[in-house]
Amino acid sequence: MVLGLLSDLPRKNCWTIADWAGETSPHGMQHLLCRAVWDADGVRDDVREYVVEHLMTMPRSWLSTRPAT
pTM higher than 0.70 for the full model? Predict the structure, then answer.
């Protein structure tokens, strides 16, 4: 979904994004946007865990060369 939104599609709606993603119908995209139930805290925790896990495997030299913000 996000890649479809970031793509160069001239129109961005469930039909065009589903087609771009190779889906045969927009129903999955529509469900995600309209009817899916999200656990914001759970998503946050999953993303945090993923980021920490992958940053811990990166070379320390990469982490120390990032500019301070």
Answer: no
Beta-carbon count within 10 A of 15 CB? 14
CB atoms within 10 A of CB 63: 10
State CA 28 to chain mean position distance. Answer: 15
Query: What is the tens place of the pLDDT at every residue in 11-59?
Result: 999 999 999 999 999 999 899 888 888 899 999 999 999 888 887 776 6
Distances (CA, A) of 48 to 2, 20, 28: 19, 29, 26
Calpha distance 65→61 (Å, rounded): 6
